[in-house]
Design a protein that fits this description.
mainly alpha
């Protein structure tokens, strides 16, 4: 046997295997995505497939998303089990910002809990406000606690949620929870 350096011999050097501890979290992410896709497919079986507008039934989108998630989950598992995420540099990863996660989670949970009480527009505005605050804080933006920033986020949330509400209720005749019986708020 000769002492040939593989980098000098013209052969591409194979990526070294990642440590076993790094493979399991990646595999668990893949399993989670795969199981989410399977659960969504199971839920889609209970939705009517009767053709609606343009010949597309109401179960089309859930099936499309479930297939995409299942494929992505399987791919992530395959990637993790055959060497890990090869292009991921350990120095690129940042620690998790749990406070931002809490802000975004609070926005989503409050939206779900308050939508029938305060209506679609206000609950979605609150969700937007809390999610943006969490994202701003995670990036360390200056002035995140200033009243001006809060007002801008509230107005932006209203400017997004109100047209969405009116489009669904007035143009598409889909009932969303409102604050008043008029259908405008």
């Amino acid at each position: 046997m000769s002492n040939i350096d593989p980098t000098q011999s013209g052969f591409a050097q194979l990526d070294p295997e990642p440590p076993k501890a790094a493979v399991w979290p990646q595999t668990l992410v893949g399993v989670g995505v795969l199981l989410t896709g399977v659960a969504l497919a199971w839920g889609a079986t209970g939705i009517s497939s009767e053709a609606g507008y343009s010949g597309v039934g109401p179960n089309f989108l859930p099936w499309l998303v479930s297939v995409a998630l299942t494929i992505c989950g399987a791919w992530i598992i395959w990637e993790s089990r055959t060497g890990g995420f090869r292009e991921m540099d350990a120095s690129e990863s940042e620690p998790c910002y749990w406070s931002g996660f809490a802000w975004v989670s609070a926005g989503l949970l409050l939206n779900a809990g308050l939508i029938t009480i305060i209506g679609f527009i206000l609950s979605c505005t609150l969700c937007y406000l809390l999610a943006v605050q969490g994202l701003r804080r995670s990036k360390g933006q200056a002035g995140v606690n200033s009243p001006r920033t809060w007002v801008i986020d509230i107005v932006t949330g209203l400017l997004i949620s109100a047209p969405v509400y009116w489009m669904f209720t007035k143009f598409l005749a889909i009932n969303l929870p409102g604050l008043t019986a008029t259908g405008w708020i």
